[in-house]
């Protein structure tokens, strides 16, 4: 918890000249990729998708989290990962390595809260299989300062809903690192979307109707007005998937959104990323399996589908969306279509992270 | 696997894109032309005589031709949901049966005009909806002049239109998109490798579809086999569909590769030999353990083709399966 002392220390620190994202060229996006030589790296990209920096990663990445002000990113390994890397984007050097405590592993996403002082990470309590949110203090060199229950099983993406409230996608799937990514509880899984305070208070929790209990809630996006979009991955019988996008306002029932039959089936029951546009007037989900970007309005009305093989990363762009794919493509997306911004000889990994958004 | 993928990327700079032209000329265009021709013949047959017994031979030929291109799920078959409209299977929610039954029960006037019928749910169009009308004992006894006769004509005509569109778009548009991959203004394929990648994906996905869906769905689990979900069992085509798909995919593999592909050839031959002697046309045998084992053996051989293709063709072309599509997180 941020104490008054921390807060004042933070204010004092702000008066000193400190490195900021401007010092690394004001990247608009962070994304991990596999390079042609088989190595992995994290890239900072400008709004037009050009490389600003490249930082080598020791293993395949999944997602990254950017500090709100300092040019510092936390890169998470693909789950089940035991470590996360705090990277100084100015020097390209490793500033800290976060090791999951004994009995825990990371699920691949994190979020900064409290003005960037606290890093929260989605984790698995391996023995019980219940979800945890690990809390780390940046001012104390990313020391672990505690953990709270995630409100469910298998938390995946987490987002700072406000500066002190975390939105958590509890995917509902129990895994054990000894058994890789094997899903241990598909018959009983109950995913949810939870809103937590950092003291562990569960403020709100959304569960879907029983017929969709095998729709694993895994990725999140936030609209400027506080609406939360959650993207799902179907774990039931192939071809029987329901909606893959949900929209939620705290205090209301979630709205589930789907495309027409042909397009819905084309998604193959799988949404890999979700994002709002910068204006918050539309929300998109991607399916690398179906090679699709589906765009909806914020009432959940399906608007349009665009195709691109292995598309997955999705973030707000200056206008519309920016998307990445496993073929190295970086694309601008809007209602009219997807158009290439650039192409690099690398395979972009699952997530494209927008900075300052 | 990691080493293999690395190798695949290292080789990606070698100019190995010659297979695209061969796929277009020797595989895709002959396939779409044959399907368009077969569907047109089915349409003509239906106009002359709409009754089920007289339409069945042309239906079988059309389905045969469809299997020559069904795996080309890129381009024209992807546009406007045509692939799914022509071949709505698997049908996990039982939509085809319900939609067709409702069309008939309501005597839905949508069947009166091509424009009207094009608005019907995809589950009520295409080969699988028509299969119900032609082969379901409860439906197939209709006479000239009945609603089902009108419906059969609407379905066959719709198929002919779809098939012609697919053929035309391949010849007049999509073939050129593939050829000009990486050129300025080609927003579909941003590099030559992307075109090869798309064709390779059709090959590997097609093989997976045979193993997981055409064979895997009726196999169900050992304790709960599901013979009744076999593809096109009403028209007696389940095994035939596997054989014709394997032959089509072998053709694609041969066209796509510049180099000899002995492992792939051997794997296709083994699976096709097994399929030819299976003697279980609609996989009814999966209901008993011995019969299920025989189908499982075929499934294993199809999976071995996938491995051979991944080891032999993918590295030579400098491609691999989807980085994100196969990650699953």
- What is the helix content of chain B? 55-70%
Strand order, sheet with most strands of chain A: 3-2-1-28
Residue share in helix of chain A: under 10%
Would you state the CATH class of chain A?
Mainly Beta
Low-confidence stretches of chain B: 1-16
Tell me the radius of gyration of chain B.
21 Å
Name the beta content range of chain A. Answer: over 45%
The major beta sheet of chain B can be summarized as: none
N-to-C SSE series of chain B? HHHHHHHHHHHH
* Total DSSP helices of chain A: 2
General form of chain A: globular
The CATH topology of the largest domain in chain B turns out to be: A middle domain of Talin 1
Mean pLDDT across all amino acids of chain A: 93
What is the name of the CATH superfamily of the largest domain in chain B? Answer: M75 peptidase, HXXE motif
Architecture of the largest domain in chain B, according to CATH? Up-down Bundle
Q: What is the H level of CATH, i.e. the homologous superfamily of chain A?
A: YVTN repeat-like/Quinoprotein amine dehydrogenase
Strand tally of chain B is 0
| Most extensive interface, chain pair and sizes | A-B, 46 and 35 residues
Question: Helical segment tally of chain B?
Answer: 12
Q: Under the CATH scheme, which architecture of chain A would be assigned?
A: 7 Propeller
Count of strand segments of chain A: 28
Overview in brief:
The complex is a heterodimer of chains A (357) and B (329). With 357 residues, chain A is mostly beta strands.
Task: Tell me what you see in this structure.
The complex is a heterodimer of chains A (357) and B (329). By secondary structure, chain A is mainly β. Chain A has one domain: Methylamine Dehydrogenase, Chain H. Chain A is 5% helix and 48% strand. Chain A contains two helices and 28 strands. Chain A has a four-stranded antiparallel sheet with strand order 3-2-1-28, with no helix packed on it. Chain A starts with a helix and ends with a strand. Chain B is mainly α and 329 residues long. Chain B folds into two domains: 143 residues, Four Helix Bundle (Hemerythrin (Met), subunit A) (Up-down Bundle), CATH 1.20.120; 156 residues, M75 peptidase, HXXE motif (A middle domain of Talin 1, Up-down Bundle), CATH 1.20.1420. The longest helix of chain B has 33 residues. The two termini of chain B are 19 Å apart. The N terminus of chain B is likely disordered. The interface between A and B is large, with 46 and 35 residues.
């Amino acid at each position: 918890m941020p104490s008054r002392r921390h807060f004042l220390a933070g204010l004092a620190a702000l008066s000193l000249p400190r490195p900021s994202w401007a010092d690394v060229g004001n990247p608009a996006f962070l994304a991990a990729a596999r390079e042609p030589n088989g190595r992995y790296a994290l890239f900072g990209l400008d709004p037009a998708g050009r490389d600003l920096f490249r930082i080598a990663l020791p293993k395949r990445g999944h997602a990254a989290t950017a500090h709100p002000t300092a040019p510092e990113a936390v890169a998470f390994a693909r789950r089940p990962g035991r470590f996360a890397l705090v990277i100084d984007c100015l020097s390209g050097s490793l500033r800290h390595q976060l090791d999951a405590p004994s009995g825990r592993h990371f699920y691949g996403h994190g979020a900064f809260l409290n003005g960037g002082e606290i890093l929260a990470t989605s984790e698995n309590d391996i023995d019980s299989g219940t979800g945890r949110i690990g809390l780390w203090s940046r001012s104390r060199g990313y020391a672990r300062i505690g953990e709270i229950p995630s409100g469910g099983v298998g938390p995946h993406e987490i987002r700072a809903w406000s500066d002190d409230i975390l939105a958590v996608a509890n995917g509902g799937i129990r895994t054990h690192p000894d058994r890789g990514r094997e899903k241990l509880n598909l018959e009983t899984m109950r995913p949810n979307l939870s809103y937590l305070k950092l003291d562990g208070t569960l403020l709100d929790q959304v569960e879907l109707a029983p017929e969709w209990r095998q729709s694993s809630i895994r990725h999140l996006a936030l609209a400027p007005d506080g609406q939360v979009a959650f993207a799902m991955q179907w774990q039931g019988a192939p071809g029987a998937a329901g909606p893959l996008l949900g929209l939620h306002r705290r205090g209301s029932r979630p709205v589930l959104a789907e495309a027409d039959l042909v397009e819905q089936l084309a998604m193959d029951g799988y949404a890999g990323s979700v994002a709002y546009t910068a204006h918050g007037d539309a929300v998109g989900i991607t399916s690398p399996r179906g090679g699709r970007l589906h765009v909806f309005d914020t009432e959940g009305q399906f608007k349009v589908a665009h195709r691109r093989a292995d598309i997955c990363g999705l973030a707000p762009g200056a206008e519309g969306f920016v998307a990445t794919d496993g073929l190295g493509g970086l694309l601008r997306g809007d209602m009219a279509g997807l158009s290439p911004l650039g192409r690099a000889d690398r395979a972009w990994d699952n997530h494209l992270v927008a900075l300052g958004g | 696997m990691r080493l293999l993928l690395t190798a695949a990327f290292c080789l990606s700079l070698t100019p190995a894109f010659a297979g695209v032209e061969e796929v277009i000329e020797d595989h895709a265009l002959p396939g779409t032309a044959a399907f368009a021709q077969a569907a047109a013949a089915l349409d003509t047959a239906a106009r002359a005589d709409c009754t089920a017994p007289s339409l069945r031979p042309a239906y079988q030929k059309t389905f045969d031709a469809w299997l020559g291109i069904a795996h080309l799920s890129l381009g024209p078959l992807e546009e406007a949901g045509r692939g799914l409209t022509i071949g709505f299977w698997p049908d996990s929610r039982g939509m085809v049966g319900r939609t067709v039954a409702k069309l008939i029960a309501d005597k839905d006037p949508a069947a009166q005009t091509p424009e009207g019928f094009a608005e019907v749910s995809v589950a009520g169009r295409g080969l699988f909806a028509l299969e119900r009308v032609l082969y379901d004992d409860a439906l197939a006894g209709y006479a000239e002049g009945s609603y089902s006769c009108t419906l059969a004509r609407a379905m066959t005509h719709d198929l002919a239109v779809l098939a012609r569109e697919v053929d035309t778009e391949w010849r007049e548009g999509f073939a050129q998109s593939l050829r000009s991959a990486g050129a300025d203004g080609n927003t579909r394929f941003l590099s030559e490798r992307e075109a090869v990648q798309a064709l390779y994906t059709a090959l590997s996905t097609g093989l997976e579809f045979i193993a997981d869906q055409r064979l895997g769905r009726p196999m169900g689990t050992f304790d709960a086999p599901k013979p009744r979900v076999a593809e096109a069992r009403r028209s007696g085509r389940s095994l035939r569909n596997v054989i014709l798909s394997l032959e089509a995919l072998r053709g694609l593999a041969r066209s796509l590769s510049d180099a000899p592909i002995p492992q792939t050839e051997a794997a296709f031959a083994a699976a096709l030999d097994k399929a030819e002697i299976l003697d279980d046309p609609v996989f009814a045998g999966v209901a008993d353990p011995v019969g299920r084992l025989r189908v499982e053996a075929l499934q294993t051989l199809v999976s071995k083709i996938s491995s051979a293709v991944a080891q032999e063709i993918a590295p030579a072309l400098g491609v691999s399966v989807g980085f994100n599509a196969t990650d699953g997180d």
